[in-house]
Structures are given as C-alpha cells and as structure tokens.
C-alpha cells in the first residue's frame, strides 16, 4: 500500500474538499522612500510667472521662525538615504544643533585646481603669492585658484571641529564659488555632491516646523549655488534649475507669510526680496534654454514686486537686472518701460547707460554712439562706458577706433575683465593676420598689469584662461 501523500508545506487540505487554499497576494505598501512615478509631473516651460504676490496671512502661529537664511531640499525622496551620520536625539529641536559634518572633512573629496587652462605668464613664480598668505588676502587680491586650495587645506587640516557648522559651510561656499569663477564648475559640482546628499538626507528626517529650523543653518547663497551645481551637466539642466527655483520660491512665500503674521517686518522684507530675486533667476534660465516668449510673459507679470518692501537701491538693482534680460530677449519697448519705472532713482548714470544700450539693441547705432560719447566725456573714469562705446564703434565698422579704446583700457586705465579681453582679441583677428602674436603680447601685458594689484576692475580673478584671449 502506497504511503498517503502529505500536503505541501504552507497549505492545509480541507476535510471535505481537494481544493487547496491559495495564499492571498501581498498588498503593496509604500514606505517613506517609495515614490509614485505618476505623481511626478512632467515639467513644461512655465507659462504663468513665478507667483510673487503673497496669499492672505494665516492665523499667528506659536512656532517661532528663525530669521537666518535656510537651505534647499536638494534631492528627491528616491535619492535620499535613511542612514544617519550621527546619533539621533529624541528631540528634533535638539538634533538641529548636532549636525555632524566630519564626512566633508576628508581630503579624498577634494582635488587641486587644474592650471592647464591658464595662460603660462600668470603661473610664473614671480606672480605667485606667498605660501602663508591668509584666505582673506587671497580673496581680496582675486587669487581665486589659490583661495580654493587654501579653503581645502583649512577644511582638511584637522583643526576644525566637525560640529562647527557655520565655519565649515563658509569654507565650502568659498571653495565652490572660487572654482566656478575659475571656470571649474564641473569639479565644483563633483565636490558639492556629498554636501548636497548630506543636507537632503538630514532635512528629510524632520517634520515641517523643525525642518525649517534645521535649514536655517544653511546660508542662502550656498543654497542657490548648490542648486546650480546639482543640475549642471544634465540633459535638461535649465528645466531642472527652474523646478528647483520654484521649490525655493514656495518656501519663500511660506516664510514671508509667517513673518507678516508675526509682524516681523525685517524678516518679511528679507523673504519678499529673495522671492523677487528668484523670479528673475527663473527668467534668466528661460532665456538660456531659448524660451524667449515664455521669459517675456514671465517678466511681464513680475512688475514691481519689490517696490513695497525694498529700499530704493534694491529696487534699482532689480530694475537694472530686468532691463538687461529684456534687452537680451530683444523686447526694447518693455525695457524702456522698465527704465521709466526707475526714473526717480538717485543714480542716473546706470539708467543713462541702459538707455544708450536700448538704442544699441534697436540698431540705432548713431544715437547709441552719441549717448555713450557724451557719457564718456562726463564720466571719463568709468571703464564700462568706454567699453560699450568701443563695441558701438566696432558694430559701425570703425575697427581702428574701437581697438584704440580697448587697448587704452588695458594699458592706461589698467582695467581687466573677461569681456574686454575677449573683444580686444576679436579686434586683433579683424585687423591683422598676425592675431596670435598680438594676443600673446596682450597676455604678457595683462599679467604685468594684474600682478601690481592696482587694477580696480579685475573681474574673474588674476589667473586668466587661454579661452579669454581666444587662444584655446
């Protein structure tokens, strides 16, 4: 007689039926790190502008909001790692003061700044600062390559406590910004990723009120720089940047509302000004991605978002930025209208220069040259007026006069900035067949002028790259 068969493990046989019970399928559940892909909207170029008007104020809240600058939520939940770099405390408020940044003090995270793109005369030993020069002196003398390496040496020296959050973040901001100025944005993005990951991971552990307190430890300029570096090199870089700016704008509106409800005028002004700044940054990204019509509609809705809470100087600065963006788009009528809003500004020179540039953008070169010549006579020490006048002469086919003005800016006024050097190199290409020799002579002149430390318009650092002289 055959032995009776045993039912399979995990199933039981009903006494009156051969039908086996089938285990119910596991119900899908979502943990804190799961993301519903359908909930992620597909980004389209934003037709409506960034909302700068604040909604009605909510009822006063008992949670005090710190007025220090917060930091952005840098990564999506799917990218976040729940592992902690420090021991958790039961009190979220207490945890905000225990951020452990020892992970960012490892020398292996940082590399020396490459000098191969730099023209050889700037690397001569006679032009190098002393090894013991402090960071502040290097920054004031615009020695940004040396400043970037100095900031790294200070971070990895072992003399900074991992819990000294303000000092570490200050040095990291110095390091990343110097790399960007030295045209090493790719290296800056690579080195900034550990900080971005850490801030995203840490901020995800807090509920909203405590998260705001945690993010207030991160300087606002560092948040903007990290956002830019995070999207650098991606296929849809500008779209991702716009999405990040909109996320920051939502935070600005929320904190401005709270400040208004608490009658904190200083904090309210801070966040509304940042909101207006983000609006222009969105417009700039739209221009860079070629969405000119969207950018025009966007700026048309920004109007005068800062006039109610900003000083005259802040309003004028925003007006100048908006005008330059409109001129870049080619909407000269809107640019003239924006200038008329700032007609009561105490600094008339900037507005007069912008008015001359509107003539330039409208292809009215005679009016642009006449305006710039008049301004150059009234303000002979202003190098930007002379530079714009030289470009106006260049576009009117007066290459020789344009060359004379640009060369005088370098040799006599000792003015150095990348746009001037690039344009003068272009003039050499138009005037002579020995353009390379003239460019190499210009490199030597600039190295000598920059090394004396007297140049007031030295923009982009002392060490000039080959690309600035069109030699790369």
Automatic annotation (TrEMBL):
SUPFAM superfamilies: TPR-like. Residues 8-21 have a biased composition (Basic and acidic residues). Residues 1-93 are annotated as: Disordered. Residues 76-86 have a biased composition (Polar residues). It comes from the Eukaryota. InterPro entries: TPR-like_helical_dom_sf. PANTHER family: D-ALANYL-D-ALANINE CARBOXYPEPTIDASE, TRAFFICKING PROTEIN PARTICLE COMPLEX SUBUNIT 12. This is TPR-like protein. It comes from Aureobasidium pullulans (Black yeast).
